Amino acid sequence: MRYTKMHGAGNSFLILEDLHGELQGEDLSDLALRFCSPLTGPGADGMIVLRPDADADFAMVFLNSDGSYGEMCGNGARCVARYGVEHGLSPDPEAIRFRAQAGLILARRVSPELYEVRLPDPSVVDLYRTTGEGFCSYVELGDPGLPHAVLEVPLSAFEDLNALRERGRALRRNPAFPKGANVSFVCLTGTDRVRAITFERGVEDFTLACGTGCGAIALSLILRGRIPGSRAEIDMPGGHLSVTLRREGQTARDLLLTGPTALVEEGRLLPPGACA
Q1: 152 and 114 within one domain
Q2: Which residues are bridge partners to 137 per DSSP?
Q3: In sequence order, what are the residues at sequence separation of 6 or more whose Cβ sits closer than 8 angstroms to the Cβ of residue 151?
Q4: The whole model's pTM is what?
Q5: Mean pLDDT across the stretch 207-225?
Q6: What is the pLDDT of residues 48-87, one digit of tens each?
Q7: Residue 240 — pLDDT band, cuts 50, 70, 90?
Q8: Strand 96-100 and strand 231-236: pairing?
Q9: Active site residue: 36, 73, 136, 214, which one?
Q10: Whether the Cβ atoms of residue 153 and residue 131 lie closer than 8 Å to each other
Q11: In terms of residue numbers, what domain contains 173?
């Protein structure tokens, strides 16, 4: 089976096609576990399977590297949008449409490597959720919602990533988050500029970037008045991402995530037990 490996701001994915039954009979969770591990495959933060969709260009099925299914992935969506354009699945680069579990995703090409995706509207917004360690902002994007917790920390906290990682690991399963949560630690470094890192559910570690995490970060900081206006510029370890939104009272709509995409490699994966 053929694969394409791409990354968005360092967040990496294996993209496989199942548009004509190529993966019929395969256990996708097992494939993700096997191929996302650098010990038994190309290695990646997640796997995306493309399938037909009657009302969109295609559908994306997203799996984390631990084999669990995810509702949506912002960086993965940008990579998939570029893949769809360059492989003829999306005929109009200004109006790319594909479906994720969290809902219909709209995207467009800004430049050959820069893509914009409209993240799912939030279904849950709790700007001051108590965790037992204080409060954080809790956001679910889409329906079913992709859960995100956003915590402000001092800039000095980024100097000890091991300590921050352990804090993220503990918070990820905090009882305050009924579905678990992706946990983003953030610090304002300018009027609309943020430094951030996300401990991702399913990866169970920090990733170089989290696209939906950036959406949750922008939404929480703007709605709490920490950032004026409707744009947040977010610096993650893997690169820079930008989010704009339309505020509606105590919630927001039309979250637009813009950031880079990159092709890493293309190749062929061998199923379990096959010989090269």
Answers
A1: no
A2: 150
A3: 136, 137, 171, 183, 184, 185, 186
A4: 0.93
A5: 96
A6: 999 999 999 999 999 999 999 988 899 999 999 999 999 9
A7: very high
A8: unpaired
A9: 73
A10: no
A11: 122-258
Query: Do residue 127 and residue 114 come from a single domain?
Result: no
Q: Is 187 a catalytic residue?
A: no
Rounded CA gap, 69 and 48, in Å?
Answer: 10
68 lies in some domain: yes
Same-domain check for residues 235 and 130:
yes
Pair (88, 141) in one structural domain:
no
Shared-domain flag, residues 253 and 160 = yes
Q: Residue 49 maps to which CATH number?
A: 3.10.310.10
Report whether 162 contacts 174 (CB < 8 A).
Answer: no
The verdict on whether 136 is a catalytic residue reads no
Task: Report the pLDDT averaged over residues 111-139.
Answer: 94
What is the model's pLDDT at position 156? 97
Residue 137 lies in a domain: yes
Please indicate, yes or no, if residue 185 is contained in any of the structural domains. Answer: yes
- Mean of pLDDT values over 209-234: 96
SS (H, E, C) the chain: CEEEEEEECCEEEEEEECCCCCCCCCCHHHHHHHHHCCCCCCCCCEEEEEECCCCCCEEEEEEECCCCEECCCHHHHHHHHHHHHHCCCCCCCCCEEEEECCEEEEEEECCCCEEEEECCCEEEEEEEEECCCCEEEEEEECCCCEEEEEEECCHHHHHCHHHHHHHHHHHHCCCCCECECEEEEEEECCCCEEEEEEEECCCCEEECCCHHHHHHHHHHHHHCCCCCCCEEEEEECCEEEEEEEEEECCEEEEEEEEEECEEEEEEECCCCCCCC
* Assigned domain for 146 exists: yes
- Overall number of domains in the chain: 2
Q: Looking only at Cα atoms, what is the longest distance across the chain?
A: 59
The active-site residue out of 36, 136, 187, 210 is: 210
